[in-house]
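Handover notes (outgoing to incoming on-call)

Open items:
1. Ubiquitin carboxyl-terminal hydrolase 5: sequence verified, structure written out, both below. Nothing else pending on this one.
2. Nothing else urgent.
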Amino acid sequence: MMKVVKSKNMEFETLITKANFIPNEEALIMIMSMGFTRVQATRALRATDNNVERAADWIFSHQSELDFEESETQPLVNNEPQFSDGESKYQLVAFISHMGTSTMVGHYVCHILRDGHWVIYNDEKVAFSENPPKELGYLYLYKRL
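Ubiquitin carboxyl-terminal hydrolase 5 structure tokens:
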């Protein structure tokens, strides 16, 4: 429904069309391309009678009000996965460590757990490792249980 309201203090008539307001689609797209939401752009165009320049300025001067309104109208979205990720139990199955006096000297070796025993892989040499230096690992690999 449209009403024309005349104000004694103003020299012009104000057209109230809040329920029937249709934003200019080109103006709406232009304001949204500036990074504003459709709701913000529509509200600003309504307040400024579809004037793009004034609408952008209106958004900046009413930003806190718009942010508050949007937070009230938008439903809370749970971004957490809706499935069970299982238990958080892991077993160390391998680690890589460095053998040498510094990172510039020496080389890397790999210890892998095979059939309940630790095996060291050192270039072409493979052997059982009775006391693997787990505390000296550079990279640790785990398997989920």
